[in-house]
Design brief:
Oligomer: single chain
Largest sheet: 10 strands, mixed
Structural class: alpha/beta
Distance between the termini: 44 Å
Number of strands: 13
Strand content: 15-25%
């Protein structure tokens, strides 16, 4: 007989950042989710905002999601679609899918730990290691600070790095990217991330001036939900485009892929709703011949990348992994060595948060992301 979901509990957490993402962005918000099934097995997941909406996410889990899920089969892939359809009246993405991720991750953790596997092997391992790239939230850094960061990436052995752009004056971006390219040399891959800061005209101009630095991709050059503008931008530029951290459903990923406006999709494991929809998006990208590079959340993104066919770049934001932030109660499920990342084989997701984290909801503040 299939075990059912007997209990769902949440705990709001605030994780201080070692390297602030801006003057007012000094910590991240999480909602830890614990699920227990009718056989007494336990799974642990989480939702991540990182700073907007944590209280709403927790409320959604404690009320609407718990009310629907309790008593149903404790199987992530079977529960996800009916739960999403039930919650859809309140919105198909955003708070809805971010909250759903907490339960989905907990159920996958439960299943993998019951089987005695890490999540990579539970899903089906394709690789022993993946390529990791250096990343940072650094638009607010001085030029000297940015150069020093690029030097640390080189010293760490990264073969690819990503830098923020989108300054009010494009000349500042050009100066900064020129300095980074000088540090990393001509052979390392260089990606830029505009965090949706440009209009169509600004994007065309800025990319035109930055393209000479041999860019592997330009990330989120426009508002993430403006498909029409992306179609027009594709006509005007030659640099590959990456996006997806702010797309929330398989349907939106399909629209952007089928419109031919994206070369690299970047689903965020939590924002899309967990492992179940992430795998569906990965299948979609593979079917359409589009590259996939998971967004952020190194400890889980790396494990999923190793369970997918093909090569997938994994993002390592400087000093922002859960391990680097001191958020984990146990050793990390992944190890970064030079330009590669490996799993340690810890059972389940391998992500348990320390009880020492502050048990409060995060304040509401604007932020930029990797």
């Amino acid at each position: 007989m299939t075990a059912t979901i007997a209990r769902l509990a949440t705990r709001p957490l605030r994780v201080p950042l070692r390297r602030p993402w801006g003057p007012d962005v000094r910590d991240l918000s999480l909602v830890e989710v614990t699920v227990e099934d009718s056989d007494g097995a336990t799974g642990y997941g989480f939702s991540w905002t990182p700073s907007i909406g944590a209280a709403a996410v927790r409320a959604h889990l404690d009320h609407d999601i718990a009310a629907f899920a309790l008593g149903r089969a404790a199987e992530a892939s079977a529960l996800w679609q009916p739960l999403w359809e039930h919650l859809h009246e309140g919105g198909g993405g955003g708070i809805t899918t971010i909250a759903m991720a907490g339960l989905d991750l907990a159920l996958w953790d439960l299943a993998a730990r019951r089987a005695g596997d890490g999540i990579t092997d539970h899903l089906g391992r394709h690789h022993d290691s993946a390529i990791v790239y250096g990343s940072g939230v650094n638009l607010h850094y001085s030029l000297d600070e940015l150069v020093a960061q690029a030097e640390r990436w080189v010293a760490a052995g990264f073969d690819a790095v990503k830098v923020k752009v989108g300054s009010p004056d494009v000349a500042r971006d050009v100066e900064r990217i020129a300095a980074v390219r000088d540090v990393i040399g001509p052979d390392r891959r260089l990606m830029l991330d505009a965090n949706q800061r440009w209009s169509l005209g600004q994007a065309e101009r800025a990319i035109g001036e930055l393209a000479s630095f041999d860019l592997a991709w330009i990330e989120e050059p426009l508002r993430a939900d403006d498909l029409t503008a992306h179609v027009e931008l594709r006509r005007r530029i030659q640099v590959p485009v990456a996006l997806g951290e702010n797309l929330y459903t398989r349907y939106r990923f399909a629209e952007f892929i089928d419109a031919g406006v994206v070369d690299v999709v970047q689903p965020n494991l939590v924002r899309v709703g967990g492992i179940t929809p992430f795998l569906a998006i990965a299948d979609l990208a593979a079917e359409r011949g589009v590259a996939l590079a998971p967004h952020l959340l190194l400890e889980l993104s790396a494990q999923l990348a190793l369970a997918l066919p093909g090569e997938h770049l994994v993002e390592a934001v400087e000093d922002a992994s859960f391990e680097a932030l001191g958020a984990l109660a146990e050793p990390s499920p992944v190890i970064v060595s030079g330009a590669t990342v490996y799993t340690t084989g810890r059972p389940g997701l391998g992500v348990r948060f320390t009880s020492e984290l502050t048990d409060v909801a995060a304040s509401v503040r604007p932020t930029e992301e990797p």
